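Exercise 7.
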Amino acid sequence: VFGFFFPMAFTAYLPAATLLGLDTFAGLPDWAGWLAPVAAVWAWVAAGLSWRTGVRHYQGAGG
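Solution. The predicted structure, written as tokens, is:
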């Protein structure tokens, strides 16, 4: 759900629905489509922090 549905909604459906003046799903307000850039930046920061944490705690693959 959080890896596919919400990113897809914020990057494709909500901005398109906002620009076309269509109703959004699940009772979201009309201005939710304009938050797509904010959601993209948030996802980028979360991915970067996750990557940094993973690299810092990497112990090796054995050998």
